Amino acid sequence: MENFPWLTTIILFPIVAALLIPIIPDKDGKTVRWYALIVGLIDFAFIVYAFNNGYDLHTPGLQLAEKYTWVPQIDLNWSVGADGLSMPLIILTGFITTLATLAAWPVTLKPKLFYFLMLLMYGGQIAVFAVQDMLLFFLVWELELVPVYLILSIWGGKKRLYAATKFILYTAGGSLFILVGSLAMAFYGDTITFDMQAIAAKHYPLNLQLLLYGGFLIAYGVKLPIFPLHTWLPDAHGEATAPAHMLLAGILLKMGGYALLRMNVGMLPDAHAVFAPILVILGVVNIVYAAFTSFAQRNLKRKIAYSSISHMGFVLIGMASFTDIGMSGAMLQMVSHGLIGASLFFLVGCTYDRTHTLMLDEMGGVGVKMKKVFAMWTACSMASLALPGMSGFVAELMVFIGFATSDAYNSTFKVIVILLAAVGVILTPIYLLSMLREILYGPENKELVEHENLVDAEPREVFIIASLLVPIIGIGLYPKILTQIYDSTTTQLTALMRHSVPTLAQKAPEVKPNKWKFFSLSAPKIGK
């Protein structure tokens, strides 16, 4: 079994299974939903087995690698592999997508098409994290957008077409930068190649690196999302259904963070040293701006959506910290937010199914009749506000420590960044606890209680939240469960980043030392 093509199987199995859905005899969707769930469980079992038997925690390089010639005329190869950057996100994708399939149990509108798209997304999302060919990466990045667009536009809310169109325009527009950047890197130099490792080994002039980095930052910044490229996300979440919410918050946002680490940091380290202070500033803006905006929202979905944007700001700060612990915190935050974001948005869907309203002003006191929902909302909100003992606390603490102890920035800049980021951290429990009070506590809204059937959570819903809380609490109590998967890779990546700084200092002597004193990188210190 050592030579078995595990990653290819994991990617193609749900896609091939999806192609069989049209011939399954099913009228009411009950058969096809069990079929999709079983396919998801089998594929997740494949992921776990491949990880346990073919992945070495102490090897920083590519593992489970496979490469097959596909279109030799343009050097397009089916090349897949996993390292510390991709393996945790592949496991997360299998876990969240399988739970999202279970969350889609109540779907009755065009169930065959819905589960067909869900299985396509399953394979497409894993492919984004596994492929090691730049052209193939662009293709799977684009193909993965189509199921999301259709799920939003067919099963969304009243403004679903607007939200879906905005999503596809933002993400497809950003993808043009991926294509142009990939072609530029592939054709640069004496050899033409789309292999990511070969591209990363090329030596690009600094000016070209800066252009490529800027283009990729726009493309992946849309997906992360980074202010001001974030406006599609609240609209998409505002109209999405619970399973789509889980995939958007749990996986799609992580694609942007993963690509930034894989390509911007790993392939363009010199440019990253120049852009790193900008990433820190953008991360702080994400944290503070989105926290204030979330605080002001009266729509439950949009409140959680802006909360997601705020939490993803820590990923930017961590990857620009130039420290091992900061980089580790960025990876941990991506996985942690995937679990917490999926749980919160699933609860939003559960609450809406019972109250048929998303406006906080129209809720109140529903915790009296829905005690299980009350408990689940409380636990998941505590995780989101980074309560000690849960994964969010460890991730954000690691980012703070990593940036505070970084020798790449001067003290003034670090103090300003930490104080501003702390404002977002303080706001998070305020708006989340206020949200809980308005939904669950206080006097009951008599009109809501009289006209809606406020039944408590059913076993399926309790199981989904319990499944998400187990890793959230497990990682919070023992982070090494997750960090050991990627530590060797992120340590190597941090060393590459730090090695680039003194080189940049030598290449740009005309820059005055104090011109950007708040943003300056202390190159001599990093070089020691």
TrEMBL record:
A cellular component annotation (GO) from this entry: endomembrane system
Domain NADH:quinone oxidoreductase/Mrp antiporter transmembrane: 132-411
Entry GO MF terms: NADH dehydrogenase (ubiquinone) activity; NADH dehydrogenase activity; oxidoreductase activity, acting on NAD(P)H, quinone or similar compound as acceptor; ubiquinone binding
Transmembrane domains' residue ranges: 6-25, 32-51, 85-106, 113-130, 167-188, 208-230, 273-292, 304-322, 334-352, 373-403, 415-436
Compartments it resides in: Cellular thylakoid membrane; Endomembrane system; Membrane
UniProt GO BP: ATP synthesis coupled electron transport; electron transport coupled proton transport
Catalysed reactions, as listed in the record: a plastoquinone + NADPH + (n+1) H(+)(in) = a plastoquinol + NADP(+) + n H(+)(out); a plastoquinone + NADH + (n+1) H(+)(in) = a plastoquinol + NAD(+) + n H(+)(out)
Top-level EC class: translocase
Bilayer topology term: Multi-pass membrane protein
Listed EC numbers: 7.1.1.-
The keyword NADP is annotated on this UniProt entry: yes
Keyword field: Membrane, NAD, NADP, Oxidoreductase, Plastoquinone, Quinone, Thylakoid, Translocase, Transmembrane, Transmembrane helix
InterPro entries, sorted: NADH_Q_OxRdtase_chain4, NADH_Q_OxRdtase_chainM/4, NADH_UbQ_OxRdtase, ND/Mrp_TM
Function of the protein: NDH-1 shuttles electrons from NAD(P)H, via FMN and iron-sulfur (Fe-S) centers, to quinones in the respiratory chain. The immediate electron acceptor for the enzyme in this species is believed to be plastoquinone. Couples the redox reaction to proton translocation (for every two electrons transferred, four hydrogen ions are translocated across the cytoplasmic membrane), and thus conserves the redox energy in a proton gradient.
UniProt family annotation: Belongs to the complex I subunit 4 family.
HAMAP family according to UniProt: NDH1_NuoM
NCBIfam families in the record: NDH_I_M, PRK02546.1, PRK12561.1
Protein name, entry field: NAD(P)H-quinone oxidoreductase chain 4
Underlying gene: ndhD
